Amino acid sequence: MDRYENLKQQLQLACPNLTLLEWEPMCGHTSFQIGGPVRLMAIPASEAELTAILQQVKKAEVLPYILGNGTNLLCQDEPTECFVIKTSKGLNRLEILPEGTIYCGAGVLLSQVAAFALQHNLTGLEFASGIPGTLGGGIMMNAGAYGGELKDVLVETHYLTPEGEKGIRRGEEQRLGYRTSSFVGGKEIIIGGVLRLSPGKQEAIQARMGDLAWKRKSKQPLEFPSAGSTFKRPQGGFAAALIDQCGLKGLTVGGAQVSEKHAGFVVNRGGATCADVIALTDQIRAIVQEETGVSLEMEVKRMP
Ligand SMILES: Cc1cc2nc3c(=O)[nH]c(=O)nc-3n(C[C@H](O)[C@H](O)[C@H](O)COP(=O)(O)OP(=O)(O)OC[C@H]3O[C@@H](n4cnc5c(N)ncnc54)[C@H](O)[C@@H]3O)c2cc1C
Description:
Elements: H1 3-14, E1 19-25, E2 37-43, H2 47-60, E3 65-67, E4 73-74, E5 80-86, E6 94-97, E7 101-105, H3 110-119, E8 122-123, H4 135-141, E9 144-145, E10 148-149, E11 154-160, E12 166-170, E13 189-196, E14 198-199, H5 202-219, E15 226-229, H6 239-245, E16 252-253, E17 256-258, E18 265-268, H7 274-292, E19 301-302
Helix pairs in contact: 1-2
Bound molecules: flavin-adenine dinucleotide (FAD).
Flavin-adenine dinucleotide binds next to strand 3, helix 4, strand 9, strand 13 and strand 15.
């Protein structure tokens, strides 16, 4: 029996109600709609179930890959021997705390926490209302838009170590920077965070959200699957402007295309593979480097 089969059996015994999927295609779990099957995927319904999973994972000596809502992710086409834990169904606690603070579970979508803040007349999260990821993925990436970022409102992050021990990082310890945090490259699993917002007027919050939703819809190719901005913003410029300047809008490899609407997005025009996206992004980087001297760095994460 191999270690994944062993892990599966142990998980079934330890967590009889756990949703456990074998050879689950990642294309069904990513906004790019790209990705072959993974050996095992668990979808815990609660923090307690996640902790129980981690105990079994430790015994099986398997390193889990943590998936939020898969909106910043490119997964390989080939079947992958790995164990994925998807957080976006469980870890969904949302609670009002004193003095304009909110506890939000890592699996809650940023749109949901923004709507929760609106409902409670709290301002500060309008920027996040159109970002399609979870709070966990958002903390990992320090997600931001239209002049706001999670760094502005995130007071503390709660996490589990791979051994299942709880920890909290506060303020500067979170090392939130442009599309990065202290969790990048680590093994911790973010389980939630505390956000500090300010009292606001519901009509004004709603109007700001509506305005940003309209801006997003008019500028971004939301009609096609993508993983959002493909590249990070280079120093002193914008990736989209450089790609456009090089005449690359519409450049296509297989089913992957540089969006004709917004050059910062690679979109899946139908049947795109991971190999198509990699070939296309390699071409974009090479041409932009050659013509402008700027080296573009991927913002989209690869699942190993
Ligand atoms: C149409 C579109 C528009 C977008 N617009 C924006 C935007 O305006 N601003 C912006 O910043 N981003 C944007 N994005 C990108 C994306 O939504 C964000 O990066 C988001 O924060 C990713 O969250 P996720 O839950 O989908 O993470 P995933 O894609 O599932 O994962 C991203 C990374 O975080 C890790 N991760 C996820 N959850 C956890 C956890 N609980 N614990 C530890 N690690 C975890 C994963 O392992 C992976 O490395 C956009 C994407 C799309 C498709």
